[in-house]
User: Fold DNA-binding protein HU-beta from Bosea lathyri.
Amino acid sequence: MTKNELIAAIAEDAAKSKADVSAVLASLSGVVAKALKSGANVTLSGVGKLSSAKREARQARNPSTGATIEVPAKTVVKFKVAKDLAETVA
Assistant:
């Protein structure tokens, strides 16, 4: 499902305009990004939990050449799906 398809589906289900739904989704991504950057977790009830985690620097190997490369440390976003949603999809 693309973003536009998601917006259309939510707009139809909630009886709202596509512009309103689009604005809410844009705001949601900004609010979630700020929360994760500050170290907070974001729980979307019935969907899952977003959290940030630090990955340490490490060495990796280029599979085509076999050369060792350095992978720098970075912060990544993790997502854990809600149990109810996982059971519904399974």
